Each structure stands twice: as C-alpha cells, then as structure tokens.
Task: structure prediction
Amino acid sequence: MADDIEDVSFLPGDTLNRKSLYEPSLPQRCRQLICTKGKATAIIVGMGIFILLVALIAAFARSGSRTCDGQTTESVTPTAAPVEDYIATNGEKFPWRNIRLPPSISPLEYDIYLHPNLTQRKFSGDVTIKCQVLEKTDFVVLHSRDLVVTQVSVKTLPDNDEKKITNQLEYTKNEQIYLKLESSVSSGDKIHIKMHFEGKLIKKLSGFYLGTYTDSHQVIRYLASTQFEPTAARQAFPCFDEPAMKANFSMSIVRDKDYKALFNMPLISSTPTNGLMRDKFQQSVKMSTYLVAFIVCDFDSITNKTKAGTNVTVWAPKDQISQAHYALQVAVNVLDCYNKLFDIPYPLPKQDLVAIPDFSSGAMENWGLITYRMTAVLYDPVHSSTRDKEWVAIVVAHELAHQWFGNLVTMKWWDDLWLNEGFATFVEYLGTESLNETWKMEQQFFELTLSPALTYDSVKSSHPIATPVHNPDQINDLFDSISYFKGASVIRMLKTFLGEADFNK
Result:
C-alpha cells in the first residue's frame, strides 16, 4: 500500500490542522487592520509609482525596441530542448532508444545465487536467465541499476553453444544493459544469459537494502530485505524488469548460521559452506520481477494453517513476536474467506508476513512473502487502540487480496495500476468485514475511501485513473489516492450496477 494511504485516519477530526483552531480567520484578520488617512494615501501613491515603473520597463524591453546608441535589438527565439543523446557509460552511442524493453526476447526462468555480507555492507551473486526468442535478433536488452555486472555470457540451448558478445553497453538513465551478439538468434530458440553481479548493501528503502533495529538490550541488530515495486528488482540482480515479463524464480542464499533466509517459496535444504549456510528454495510460480522478495534476518516466528492447509507464518523481532498473534489470526481467516469468495485456491504452499523495521510503504504484496511496516502488522492488546486493531486487519486484508489481484492476474504495464490497487482496496473491505461485522466496513467505505477520492479528484493535480506512464518517476507518481481510492470507488459502482451475483462471476 502506498505510504499516503496509511496516513488516512479513521477519525475525521484527526486530519485537521490543529494550529488553525487558535489562529484568526482571514475575515477576522481584515477586521483587525487599522490604518490612518495619511498612511492610506502614501500606500496608494506608492502603488501607482510601482505600476508606472513596471509599464515603462515592459515598453522599453519589448521586441524591436531601440537601445541608447540607436541600434535595434532582435527578439530571441527560445532554444529547443536538446535531443537525448543516449550515451552509454563508456562514451559510445547506446543503440536501444526506448524506455521499454524490446519484445524480441522473453524470460522463462531465473536461477539466482546471492551472497549478502551484512558486515561488509555489500552483496554479490550470479543469475542465469533462461529466455525464449520471440523474434530474430542479434542483441539483448535488460535492466540493471547500481550494479557492477561482469562475466556475461549468452548460450543457445540445448547444445550450450556460446554466442560471442561483441559489445556490452550500459545506459544509466534508462537503467538498461545492451548486449550485442556476433550472430543472430532465431525465433523459437531458447538461450541462457548468465551474469555475475555485485552491489552495495546500504541503508535505503528500495531494491535490496540494509535495515536495523534495536532490541530490548539496546543492541543494534541488522537485517537485509527487499522492496522492488515498481522498478527496483533491477537494483538487486540484472533482470527483465517489466510486469508482463513473468518467469519462474529459483533462489539460493548464503547466510550466517545465526540468521534465517526467507524467499517467496518454502525452503528445500540448508547446506554448510565455508562456515556459513547456503539455503535453497523451491522454484516459484510464474510471476513478475516486482513480486520477488528475499530477506536475511534473525527474527522469530509463529505459524498456523488455513482450512486448505496453507502454512501462514508471521515473522518479527524476537522482542516483539508476542504482538504478531492478531495478524496471524487475521491472515488465516481472510485467506479462508478469499478462497471461498474467489473460488480460486491460493496457489502457493505458504504465506509469510514479515514486520520490517525500515520500510517505506504501509506494506508490499510480494507473493508468498508479504512485507509490512511494523505498525501495520503488530498489535499489542494491552496498549494498542481499537483503531490500531482495525488498521492491522485492513492492511493484512489488502495485501492478501493482492495475491489474486496483482499477483495471479497482473497488469501488462503500469498505466493500469488502478486495477491492481483499486481491486485490492475494494476487496479489503470484504475481507475485514468477515472478521468483525460490528465494524460495519461497508459504511466505513464512504468515509475512508469514497470521500477522500472525491476530495483528491476535485483538485487540479488530479489525473485519470488510467494514465500513460513512460519512466520510473512517472510510475512512482501513480501510487496515489486516485489509483487506490477512486479506483476502488469505480469498481464498487460497477458492482452496484451489475449486481453482486454477476459481479462475482
């Protein structure tokens, strides 16, 4: 969920600027003004002189006016914005001139090996990408950002014949790598692209980043976690980082013995290696890169099962795991509700919910490994309010709705983000209503979603719910109240028009 969505209050008065309660209004300020006749005359004369000076300056500065020496000045034609040069990091021209990747190659499978070093604040790894060639081509373009990529090879399958790479270029503005092949690969071929990569593990809030928290003994603890939506998977490993380019992902992670590694899928094996542990995970279902997630931490966990047998686990720092029981209860019940409502079983064998100390959004719907801001998943029945309890339920229900709307069914490109977030926002009310009917979530929809949608849609900065986007900055701007609240309101209107029975079909 977007950060500004979490800040919406359940209490209408909480959004008021309390400072305004103690300041005079504009009419009151006007009534407080006292001015003598002399001062008023001076102000009027001064304003007249100022206006006259501005008019004279404008007259002498207009196009074609004469200077003091009798020469005529010429008007200056505005210079057009420079055309993008597309210069790679080595100074050469970058041949691919589109923010979107070419449609000639589509990924099928990723095999990722990752070694994060939390002490030295860096990570390294290898990725092998099995791809399908859809159109004859002699080049490959994929995404990478803030990574050092080396040892690149391209091989055709199944004979593993290596295709010589005659040129490797990087264009940082579009976050792309270009591989020029000596000879073409044909439509229908399958290829392996293998790369070694290295990156910095630092404190930021996107990509694969370093996080910290302080335990009850005032000891600083470290963890490494991910936040890839919308375009940050490329900061963790080279990839085809577009939502329509779905693939299966296999993952191996090296960790310290005192830590745990988490991935979208369950753990297969843990093998000792040079004093460390190497964890290997099951291959994922076919999914977009922005839904991939992995975490290295020292958290504790609690587990339960849904009626369908799905393992649901909540992870949190050891000192706070006692506050995770409510979120676990909500997740199990809401998954049961959605399985029945959608009539499509949850497709993964497990669902993890992880409380992340350093997190930019309210939560992120990574398939099988949802990450949350700690306030959105932890609930202390002794100290937390009823509002906190309801908020945890809503956020958990929202992210679980994404496991179907967004993960199982995904937009082709980000201009349809409103369908992703709008459906999840609409369905979160159904999931939360199944937990506690006394909350009357259907009535709260008007206050929490419809009313803010109308407010945000009434200002000049509003935009259509379906908006064309062409670069990562524009994509990030779409995660706003229009996509969430207006999108959900339109979907609710559609349900009311069609009727519940037809809508659910």
Remarks:
- Confidence is low (pLDDT under 50) at residues 3-35, 62-82.
